[in-house]
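Standup notes
- DV: blocked on the single-chain target, sequence here:
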Amino acid sequence: MTVKCMKFKVCGRVQGVGFRYHTAYQGLKLGVTGYAKNLNDGDVEVVVCGSEQQIAMMEKYLQQGPRSARVDSLVKEELEYKPYNGFVTL
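- DV (later): unblocked, structure below
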């Protein structure tokens, strides 16, 4: 299995609504590694490492987020692979 990493910037009403917690839960469910963290501009950065299929499933989740969130846009960028220990919130 080829493992890749992708960085997503999630824009919208994504802070203060449990977005990072729900994203970490989804990441653990999918078996990916990485993190979710709040950015100073009100967006959330999510790094996901796993198979292409796992990353695609996480991207689909990030387009919606939890019910309490409103995702306006999702920007993605491929990263060089880096091993992470589980999926955490920062």
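- Follow-up: DSSP finds two helices and five strands in the chain.
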